[in-house]
Structure formats: structure tokens, C-alpha cells
Design a protein that fits this description.
The complex is a heterodimer.
Chain A lengths: L2 E8 L2 H13 L6 E3 L7 H5 L6 H27 L3 E2 L2 E2 L7 H28 L19 E6 L8 H11 L3 E7 L1
Antiparallel strand pairs in A: 1-5, 1-6, 2-5, 3-4
Helix pairs in contact in A: 3-4
Chain B lengths: L17 H13 L4 H27 L14 H12 L2 H11 L9 H22 L26 H34 L3 H10 L7 H34 L11 H27 L8 H31 L3 H12 L3 H13 L7 H4 L2 H27 L15 H24 L5 H11 L1 H5 L8
Helix pairs in contact in B: 1-16, 2-15, 3-5, 3-9, 3-14, 4-5, 4-8, 5-6, 5-9, 5-15, 6-7, 6-8, 8-9, 9-10, 9-14, 10-11, 10-12, 11-12, 12-14
Classes of the chains: A alpha+beta, B mainly alpha.
Chain lengths: ~180, ~450
């Protein structure tokens, strides 16, 4: 099924936000917004849910802490209780204070890298990926809204055109997708 | 859009538009490098290569080429290590701590400060690595299953804590820096005309698109990384100070070390940021983004952390007397009046007196004066580490073992070499990377830009 995509360009973040609010209130589904910097407040308007990467970072951190604890207990208590100045490590708890710095560092390492890798994978931004923005100016000073006709069955193309006309866009680009 | 008080000085001067920000940051990358860049790069490269050559000689011959002796077994190597790690503390502090405190002035300086951090930590890491003597078995510091029986590294040792702290700090700082760079690389990619540049920046930008969802994730990832990096900054230099504080050497064995080292690190890091940025803003025409107000804010940080360092020095002196331990008292009296008095008083002048001059507003807003003080602080902080390390161990318990430290030419060459390499890295960064977080600066343009703040509409919606 062929689809038509409308790229509506604005030259100001406030202008785009204002017209997005307007269009959504008329029942238009905006599928994507491309901008050179984060537009604060656009997410609830176009229905972008908050990311759960924060929860992932917590879980990665927990994994790091667990690994560090298991590792250090094995190395220092189980496998070879190192005897330093007549003070061997009889149990993990007795010697826990000495293990705090590395437990902390390893927790941070796992949380930060785990989250960063998940972020890049979820975004599908990896080295050598082709640019996905519809217009090169969206990384400079232009703001683009993407509307798909297939996601707006109840609105005809001409209705949409006139609605967009009212918002005072800068440029309108239409593309056929097969 | 966030608004701020009218009396607050604008952070972006002049009548800039979003496009102007892009132009101003990308132009130095797209234009030909000025002649001065090649001259500086050449000088830095020669000094850096001299250092690399000296390191090769050191690795081939052994660390006996350093000016160490039986009493002074630790001198310039660890001094330089701590000096570089300290310098490497400003970048992540600026990007992480100031992000949590929502300080908008950080946006103009965080990118280059983070770059400085990463290069400084590279240089710092060089010293423990070459100190091993046998660099090729450096991986033995990791707990790797091996053929030597149950032979594990010592997790009770602050030196091993250092391995984990520095590697975590370096890698997390690198990731934090790069995640911020991706959208800016995309901006350069979309403007690039030459095919090679387009290809390179396309690879570097990871195909960044600027979708709303991606920006949503970007902001959260930045926030969480800042939250993780903030305790990390404090932990790293605390752990570096444990290298000394957990020993039983008078002058090292003090509980004040962790906070005192952290304050000193921030102090020296900001000084290095000032040194670099005062030149960079001029050379790259970024005076509208990094101006007197930014310099003043950083000078206030230098003043505060310098005061903490000064208080720590005086506390140390007091406690050494108050402890009633004669070895402890002697260590400090010897610092001030012994053969290394000149190092001690250089440190006191550079680190305690000079930052106090920043209480005067005209001085802390003077760029020339700031540049001078930033160099003074860098020198003072090197002497601080030298004083702590060498003067504490040069008087051993037995007077027969008393000694002095004289650096060999390899000591000096390796140190100068790391400074050369640091500038090689920084100059390459300034040439090919966006030195300003341009996409972050755009977010504060309407809230803190001069033309917006001066417009009659700015305060209408309150």
C-alpha cells in the first residue's frame, strides 16, 4: 500500500509547538518531529512517552554491584583469603569497608555503559548508520513535523493542506512511499 | 522556553539566531586552519614525540633512569600522575555537577572542558603504566584467571582501587562527552560539502536524526550520566588521596586528604580550563559565547576551592602540632623550613594567596589577570603534589637514610612530553570537533541571549 508523507517545516521551535498543539486538537496524528535541539514540552503534545532508560540504568547498576560483590568475595575470601599483616579476610562482612570503593566504581561503570549502549541501540544510532533526518537543515535551525496520511484516515489530503496552511509553515514537502 | 531575571547578564552576547550559532561553531572546522594552529601543533608534536622517545628509552632500560633513590622511591612520576588527574576533574564537574544544578553558563564551556578532562586523564594514566616498568604485563592489574595458582590482585589495596576508579572515570567521561557530541557531529555532517568530511562526520554522528523520541532519551541519558558522574568525580580523587592517606608515612597519614584533594583537583582543573579557553575563545572567535561573565563564574569557583585548599593546608599544620606526635610535627616543620622550603612557599603563594585576589571584582573580570593566575595555580598545584610526596619521604626515620631528590633528564622529558601530547590532542580537538555544545547553546538562546533579553516582549508573559 502506498503512503504519502508530509514534511512541514517551521523556522522556530515555539511556532512548531504551537501548530502541533493546534493540529492535534483537530484530530491530526503527528508521527514525528525533527529538531536541532530538544523542544521542551513537545513530547506530551505529539504523544511521545517518557523513556524508561533510567530504570534500565538502575538495573545495570544493580548487576554491577552484584558482580563486584560476588567477585570480590570469591577472590578475597573464598579462593585465597589474603593475609595482610596477620589480618586475614575471614568473611566478606568483616572486610567489607575495603571493598566499598571498587563496589561503587563497578556499579557506576556498569550503569553508565549499560545505559549508553542501550541508548544507542534503541535509537538505532550506531557508527556508520545513514542520516535519518528528512532535511539537512533540521540539524541547523529548522524544525520539521512529519505527518503520514495512512495514520490520518479520517482526514482528506486537501483538508490537511488547508489546516496546515493556517499554521503558517515555512515549507511543505510531500513524498510518496511505496 | 525558560526565562530568567532581567538583571542577570545575558550568556550569549549580540544578536544571534539559531543559524548564527551553527555558523560560529562550524566555521573554524570548515575553514582552513590558521597558520598559528600549524605552528602550535608543530611545537606540541615535537615536545610530545620527545616525551614518547623518552618513554621508549625508559621502557627499554628500566625505571632506574628516573632520579629516584632508596629513600625517595616515588617522586615526579606520582606527582605528575596526581597533577594530571586533578586537572582532569574540571570537565566532568562542569558537565555533571553544574548540569544537576541547572547552571546554564556551563553550556558554553562543557564540551572543551570535557575534552580537556579526557586528554588529561590519558596523560595521568601514562604514569602508573610506565611506572610498572614492564608495560606489556600491565593487564596483570585486572583480576584475570591465570596459571599462577590462586593469584588474584589485592582488592584491599588503594592502588587497585585507583585502577578501577581511573578506568571508570576515563571511560564514563568519554561516553558522556561522546553522547553530547553525536548531535553536533550531525550538524557538521549535514553542512559538510567535501565528500571525505561528509563521510567522516557521517560515521562519527552515528546517523543522528533529531527525532523527538531521541531527544527525550538524550536528555534523560545526560541527566542520569550526570547523576552517576557527580559522585564519581568525588570518588576518583578521594581514592587517589587514599594512595597516600592509607599509608603510615607522617605527612601522608591524614584523614583530611580526600576532601582536600578533591577541592585541589577542582581548583587546578578550573585553572587549566581558564588557560585553554581564554586562548581558544580568541583564536576561534567565540567571544560572544564565552565572555567575561563565564570567566568570572569560573574565577569564583577557583576562589572558593582555593580557599578550601588554603584552609586544608592550615588545618594540616594545626593538627600536626595538636596531635602531639613528634614525627608528624617534624614532617610539617620540615616542609616549611627544611631544604624544600622553596617548594612549600611556592605552593603557599600560588595556591593560598593568589586565589584570594579574586575577591576583587575588577580583577576577576580581567581576562589578562585571569590568564596569569590560571598559570600560577597550575604551577602551584604541581608544587603541592611535589611537596606532599617528596618532602614527606626525603627525611626517613633513620638520619643515615636522609636524601634529596634530583630529577633526571628523563623525568623532565617525560613530564614535558605529556604536556606536549596533551596539547597535540587538544589542538586536534579544536580543529576537527565542535568546541561548543552548539545544540545545547541553542536551547538557552531565547532564555539567555542578549537580543532576546533586551526585547520588550521578554518579560511580557510573566
Amino acid at each position: 500500500m502506498s503512503d504519502k508523507v508530509l514534511y512541514v517545516m517551521y523556522d522556530d521551535d515555539e511556532a512548531l509547538k504551537h501548530s502541533a498543539k493546534n493540529l492535534v486538537s483537530k484530530g491530526v496524528k503527528i508521527s514525528e518531529v525533527f529538531s536541532p535541539f530538544p523542544i521542551h514540552g513537545i513530547d506530551p503534545i505529539i504523544g511521545v512517552k517518557n523513556t524508561r532508560l533510567g530504570i534500565m540504568a538502575f538495573l545495570y547498576g544493580l548487576i554491577g554491584l552484584t558482580l563486584a560483590t560476588i567477585g570480590m568475595r570469591f577472590f578475597m575470601v573464598v579462593d585465597w583469603p589474603m593475609n595482610i599483616g596477620g589480618k586475614p579476610n575471614f568473611s566478606y562482612l568483616e572486610n567489607m569497608l575495603a571493598f566499598v570503593p571498587i563496589s561503587f566504581e563497578f556499579t557506576v561503570m556498569c550503569a553508565a555503559h549499560g545505559m549508553a549502549i542501550t541508548y544507542l541501540l534503541r535509537n538505532k544510532t550506531l557508527p556508520g548508520m545513514p542520516a535519518q533526518n528528512p532535511d539537512p537543515r533540521t540539524t541547523d535551525d529548522k524544525f520539521v513535523m512529519e505527518i503520514r496520511l495512512s495514520e490520518n484516515h479520517n482526514i482528506t489530503e486537501s483538508d490537511l493542506d488547508s489546516m496546515l496552511q493556517e499554521t503558517g509553515y515555512l515549507e511543505l514537502d510531500k513524498k510518496e512511499i511505496k | 522556553m525558560q526565562k530568567e531575571a532581567a538583571i542577570r547578564e545575558p550568556l550569549i552576547l549580540g544578536h544571534k539566531t539559531y543559524h548564527d550559532v551553527t555558523e560560529d561553531v562550524c566555521r573554524p572546522i570548515e575553514d582552513k586552519a590558521p597558520k598559528m594552529w600549524y605552528i602550535l601543533f608543530g611545537i606540541a608534536l615535537v615536545i610530545g614525540l620527545y616525551g614518547v622517545g623518552s618513554i621508549m628509552y625508559l621502557l627499554g632500560t628500566g625505571i632506574g633512569v628516573w632520579g629516584l633513590n632508596k629513600t625517595i622511591g616515588w617522586a615526579w612520576d606520582i606527582t605528575n600522575f596526581v597533577w594530571w588527574v586533578g586537572i582532569g576533574h574540571a570537565g566532568t564537574l562542569i558537565s555533571a555537577v553544574l548540569l544537576l544544578f541547572r547552571q546554564k553558563w556551563r553550556m558554553a564551556i562543557n564540551r572543551s572542558a570535557e575534552a580537556m578532562t579526557i586528554f588529561a586523564v590519558f596523560m595521568a594514566g601514562t604514569f602508573p603504566l610506565i611506572h610498572m616498568g614492564r608495560l606489556w604485563v600491565g593487564y596483570w592489574v585486572m583480576p584475570i584467571p591465570n596459571q599462577f595458582g590462586s593469584l588474584w590482585v589485592n582488592f584491599n589495596s588503594p592502588l587497585l582501587w585507583d585502577v578501577f576508579a581511573i578506568s571508570t572515570y576515563l571511560s564514563v567521561s568519554l561516553v558522556f562527552w561522546y553522547i553530547g557530541l553525536i548531535p553536533d557531529f550531525a550538524t557538521i555532517r549535514d553542512r559538510a560539502k567535501k565528500p571525505l568530511a561528509k563521510k567522516m562526520y557521517s560515521i562519527l554522528s552515528f546517523g543522528w536524526s533529531g527525532r523527538a523520541k531521541h531527544w527525550n532519551r538524550f536528555e534523560l541519558v545526560s541527566l542520569v550520566l550526570a547523576g552517576l558522574a557527580t559522585p564519581l568525580v568525588f570518588s576518583v580523587h578521594s581514592i587517589v588521596s587514599f594512595d597516600f592517606a592509607t599509608s603510615v608515612i607522617p605527612g601522608w597519614h591524614t584523614t583530611i586528604f580526600p576532601p582536600y584533594f578533591v577541592a585541589g583537583a577542582v581548583f587546578s582543573g578550573f585553572a587549566m580550563v581558564q588557560t585553554l579557553l581564554l586562548i581558544m575563545r580568541k583564536a576561534m572567535g567565540l567571544e560572544a559565547y564565552i565572555h567575561t561573565k563565564h570567566v568570572e563564574y569560573m574565577n569564583i569557583v577557583i576562589m572558593v576551592t582555593g580557599s578550601i585548599v588554603g584552609t586544608a593546608y592550615i588545618t594540616e599544620l594545626f593538627i600536626s602540632w595538636y596531635s602531639g606526635v613528634e614525627y608528624e610535627s617534624y614532617a610539617f616543620i620540615n616542609r616549611a623550613t627544611g631544604p624544600y622550603w622553596w617548594a612549600y612557599w611556592s605552593m603557599m603563594t600560588c595556591n593560598v594567596i593568589s586565589p584570594q585576589l579574586m575577591w576583587f571584582r575588577p580583577l576577576r573580570r580581567s581576562l589578562l589577570f585571569t590568564f596569569f593566575i590560571s598559570i600560577v595555580v597550575n604551577i602551584g598545584m604541581w608544587f603541592e603534589r611535589y611537596v606532599i610526596i617528596v618532602t614527606s619521604i626525603h627525611r626517613d626515620y633513620i638520619p643515615a637514610a636522609w636524601s634529596m631528590h634530583f630529577p633526571s633528564h628523563i623525568d623532565i622529558a617525560v613530564y614535558l612530553g605529556t604536556i606536549g601530547l596533551f596539547f597535540v590532542f587538544f589542538l586536534l580537538f579544536a580543529r576537527y570537533f565542535p568546541v561548543l555544545a552548539l545544540n545545547e547553546v541553542k536551547t538557552i538562546l531565547k532564555g539567555s541571549g542578549q537580543s532576546y533579553k533586551e526585547s520588550p516582549d521578554y518579560h511580557k508573559h510573566h
